[in-house]
Amino acid sequence: MATSLLKKVWESVSNRSSSSYSSTSNPTRSSSSSSSYNLDIDQICLHASFIGAFDRIPLDIFFQILKLLGPKDTAKLSVVCKYWKLIVSDNRLWIHFLQNTDLPWDSVFFAENYLRSGYHHLLALPRQMPELSFMHIYGQRARVPGAIIIDGGSGYCKYGWSKYESPSGRSATFLEFGNIESPLYSRLRHFYATIYSRMQVKSSRHPVVVSVPICQYDDTDSAKAARRQLKEAMYLALYGMDVPAIVAINQATLALFAARRTSGIVVNIGFHQTSVVPIVHGKVMRKIGVEVVGIGALKLTGFLREKMQQKNMNFGSLYTVRSLKENLCYVALDYEAELSKDTKASLKVASDGWFTLSKERFQTGEILFQPRLAGLLAMGVQQAVALCMDHCLSADITDDEGWFKTIVLAGGSACLPGLAERLEKELRGYFPSMSNGIRVIPPPFGADSAWHGAKLISNLSTFPGSWCMTKKQFRYKSLHNRIW
Fold first, then answer.
1. Inter-residue contact 173 to 156 (CB < 8 Å)
2. Fewer CB in a 10 Å sphere around the end CB: N or C, the chain?
3. Residues contacting 384, CB < 8 A, separation 6+
4. Residues linked to residue 354 through DSSP beta bridges, in sequence order
5. Distance between CA atoms of 323 and 349, rounded to whole angstroms?
6. What span, in angstroms and rounded, lies between the C-alpha atoms of 366 and 297?
7. In the 8-state DSSP scheme, what is residue 215?
């Protein structure tokens, strides 16, 4: 095996012109974000004679040859000698190979550094993180079986295979998961069975990562009981279908992970309402308080429909209105100034033809900030976030004083252009003393952010690892009535 690999390397070298060998004999260290993982080149050069006929090749050229060989053959070269093993295990090589996967390198780096050991690892400080071998991680990730991801909420469900770039299917659910008076188990069982049927996979073959809808926000005993009942029903339904392993994580936490954060505030604009969720080290801080605004995607679509009806615009269904909202609407940075502008824009909807909108383009999103425009007695989303931030500031629960200054948007309607900029402007007005530290991040993967957060977990080198609750653990928690 070693002979054939050496032959491959030699052929690669022989095909290069001799001029390329004399380019640089003392390569410099990489200045990329992975520089902390760079190989000690001086150490390699001291032992260059042990590489034999290859000692004429500058190390950077040798790295390029190894990249051409590919990950499998590069890994096999580690058996040649200990110095070759040192070379081929260089993290720069394996970062290059990982960068050619479907996940962005920044996401892979974040996941393997902060998520690989579950919630316990999230509590570790960066300086306590062990130095990772990405050669080892690459091999582990290549063997990970992957998972079925089900991100379902009260409006729409995104589902698919974790090895795919994006969800393979979407379905309107309109399931009120938080309604504990409904026959929850039977509805969930039918819901999950339908998804597996559409994906044409057997439930017994693959683990599943399922998002837990944001519901029952309080820290009261009744809310805890409702959350426990919801999760128990989810586990019962899935384990009743012989799913081998289940990872269930809150939707807001998954959206935060997708933004490569473990702490922050997630503003999730759901189907019926908007939730402002404080999260520290991956855990929802209900003791701090989850703020809720009774405005969601359905209310935005309904408001636009009313505006269109007032202008005698004829449309066939709410689908047309939703298409116009998603493609033409935006949030104004300065609402009053926007009123004096010409904001007309047109869109052709396949089922109903052409439509032209003007002020309603930005008035629709404005009801998130001024609910009274829609006749609603509710606080604006900026007030809800400011209230949550104020509670976070008073709680003083972590050494990181600025964790709550990062706000991540989630949900389909959170993708409205200008929303992040407007919310950031409003929050800086509420907190002028720390305005420079406040940052509002748009949905990192649009409406699919929570699904992509689940994908980070599903493709971890240690998956399912400590993120998973086994059937035995589930039975123990249920038997002892433990709070989830």
1. yes
2. N
3. 274, 276, 291, 292, 293
4. 348
5. 7
6. 13
7. -
Q: Is 311 exposed, middle or buried (0-12, 13-18, 19+ CB in 10 A)?
A: exposed
pLDDT in tens, 400-436: 888 999 999 999 999 999 999 999 999 999 999 998 8
Q: Tens of pLDDT along 113-154?
A: 899 888 766 765 555 556 789 999 999 998 998 899 999 876
Q: What distance in Å separates the CA atoms of residue 190 and residue 402, rounded to the nearest whole number?
A: 43
* Model confidence, pTM: 0.85
CA distance 31 to 22: 22
Enter the tokens of residue 41. Answer: 């080149």
Judge residue 31's burial from the number of C-beta atoms within 10 Å of its C-beta, 0-12 exposed, 13-18 middle, 19 or more buried. exposed
| H-helix or E-strand spanning residue 9 | helix 2-14
Angstrom distance (rounded) from CA 330 to CA 347: 14
User: What H or E segment, with its residue span, contains residue 199?
Assistant: helix 184-199
Instruction: Decide if 209 contacts 250 (C-beta within 8 A).
Output: no
Gap between the Cα atoms of 476 and 456, Å rounded? 28
